[in-house]
Amino acid sequence: MFKILTLNNISVAGLNRLPRDKYEVASEIMHPDAILLRSFKMHEMEIPKTLKAVGRAGAGINNIPVEKLTSMGIPVFNTPGANANAVKELVVAALLIASRNLTQAWDYARNLEGDDASIAKAVEAGKKKYAGTELPGKTLGVIGLGAIGGRIANAVIGLGMKVIGYDPTVTIQHAWNLSAEVQRALSFEELLSEADYITFHVPLIDATKNMLNAERIKHMKNNAIVLNFARGGIVDDDAVIKALDEEKLYAYINDFPTNENKNHPRVVSLPHLGASTFEAEENCAVMVADQIQDYLENGNITNSVNFPEMKMPRAGASRITISNSNVPNMVGQITSVLADSGINIVDMLNKSRGDIAYNLVDLGTGADEEVVNKIKQIEGVLAVRII
Ligand SMILES: NC(=O)c1ccc[n+]([C@@H]2O[C@H](COP(=O)([O-])OP(=O)(O)OC[C@H]3O[C@@H](n4cnc5c(N)ncnc54)[C@H](O)[C@@H]3O)[C@@H](O)[C@H]2O)c1
Ligand SMILES: O=C(O)[C@H](O)COP(=O)(O)O
C-alpha cells in the first residue's frame, strides 16, 4: 500500500486516479511515500524518511526545497501547461480591467445613492472619469514565453495587439508554438521601452527577483500598465507604487496582495487566482497523480524538475531504481553488486541531469533487501527501491 500525503486540497478527479486498494490518501498521514501539494510552503518542513516523490499540482516550485530533495535522491514533479489557459484568461481580463478602469468605475456605480432617476443622471455625469483605451494597436511586452506567456502572446495578437517577447532560455517547443507575429526583444530594456503593457510569466528564482525595479521603470513608456501573475517578488512593489504615485505608470494588476499594494487606488490585487478554475485544478491533479503513480509503481519519470525524463517498458521479474550522484563508475559498481549476487540484468537505462543520475534496472530474478543494502553502501548512491 502506498501512502500519499496531501498538503493542499487536490482535485478529487486527480486523487481518484490512485486506486484505493493500492493507495491510502490523506491530509494527515505518517510515513508517506509521496507528497501532493499546490502552494504549501515545504521549506521549513522536516522531510519524512519514507518519502520517495513530491508532486506539485501546478507550475511554480519556489515553495519546494528542490535542492534538498535532489540531494536525498527524491524527484519533484510538476504539471507544465496544465493551468496555463486559466492564467491566460485571467491576464486577458486584467488587460481589460486596467484599460477600461473597470474596478474604479464599478466602485463609482455601487456607491451611487438616491432614486433611480438621480442615479441615471449621476451615471451620465460621472462616466467621463472612467473613459478608457482599447487594445488593438497597443503593444504587450511578455516576459517569459513558456506555457503561459506563449498562450498570452498568441491570444492578444488575436485581439489586435502587437506583442514583443523576452525569453533568452525559451525552449524550442515553446518557440514553435509562438505566432510568427511575436517580435523578439534582445534585452529586457528593449521590451520595456516599446511596451504599453508588460506581463510577467517567469519562475521566481534569483535571476528574476525584483526583475522590474526603479531603475528599469525609467525605461518604460509613460502611463504603461504592469501585470504580475507570476509571483510576488518578481516585481518590486515599492518601486511600482512610487511610479504610480508619480503618474509615471498607469496601473498595476497582480495576483499577490500585500499590505502595501492591496488598497492603492491604481492597483488591483487578486488572491492568487491564476490557476483557480475547475478545469485547471482538475488538469493539474490528474497529471500529477498519473506521474506519481507511474514513478511509485514503475520508477518512470515524466515532468520532473530535478530528475531526467526516463521511461522503460517493464521486463524481467523485478525492477530496481537507483538515484545517485552524477560521478564516474557508478553504473560499474552497481552492476558488479548485481553480478556478484548472481542476478542477471534483463534491461537497463541510465540518464543524468546536472548533479543527479538515475537508473532503471530490470532483473531476471527478484532482488532482496541484502542486494539493496549492498547498493546503498556504494558511495554516491542516494536512494534505492525494488518495485
Ligand atoms: N498566478 C498563478 O496562479 C500562476 C499559475 C501558474 C503559474 N504561475 C507562475 O508562472 C510561472 C511561469 O509558468 P509557466 O507555466 O509559463 O512556466 P514555463 O516554465 O512554461 O515558462 C517560464 C518561462 O520563463 C522563462 N524564463 C526563465 N527565466 C527568465 C528570465 N530571467 N527572463 C526571461 N524569461 C525567463 C523560461 O525560459 C520559460 O520559457 C510559474 O513559475 C509560476 O511561478 C502563476
Ligand atoms: O504556480 C502555479 O501553478 C500557480 O501559482 C498556482 O498555484 P496554486 O495551485 O496554489 O493555485
What do you see in this structure?
It is an enzyme of class 1 (oxidoreductase). The chain is α/β, with parallel strands linked by helices and 387 residues long. The protein folds into 3 domains: 1-83 and 275-307, Rossmann fold, CATH 3.40.50; 84-269, Rossmann fold (3-Layer(aba) Sandwich), CATH 3.40.50.720; 308-387, 2-Layer Sandwich (Alpha-Beta Plaits). 32% of the residues lie in helices and 21% in strands. The protein is built from 13 helices and 16 strands. The strands form 3 sheets. Strands 8-7-6-9-10-11-12 form a 7-stranded parallel β-sheet, sandwiched between helices. A 5-stranded parallel β-sheet has the order 2-1-3-4-5. Strands 14-15-13-16 form a 4-stranded antiparallel β-sheet, with helices on one face. Helix 3 (84-99) crosses helix 6. The chain is elongated, with a radius of gyration of 26 Å. Residues 58-60, 80, 83-84, 87, 143-149, 166-167, 169-170, 174, 201-204, 207-208, 229-231, 255, 272, 274-275 line the site of nicotinamide-adenine-dinucleotide. Nicotinamide-adenine-dinucleotide binds next to helix 3 and helix 6.
Number of domains: 3
CATH superfamily of the largest domain: NAD(P)-binding Rossmann-like Domain
Largest sheet: 7 strands, parallel
Mean pLDDT: 98
**Adjacency order of strands in the biggest sheet:** 8-7-6-9-10-11-12
Radius of gyration: 26 Å
The low-pLDDT segments are none
Distance between the termini: 12 Å
SSE order, one letter for each helix or strand = EHEEEHEHHHEHEHEHEHEHEEHEHEEHE
The shape, in one word, is: elongated
Into which percentage range does the β-strand content fall?
15-25%
Indicate the multimeric state.
single chain
List the total number of helices: 13
**What's the level 1 CATH class of the largest domain?**
Alpha Beta
Q: Strand tally, please?
A: 16
Structural class: alpha/beta
- The CATH topology of the largest domain comes to Rossmann fold
Heterogens? nicotinamide-adenine-dinucleotide, 3-phosphoglyceric acid
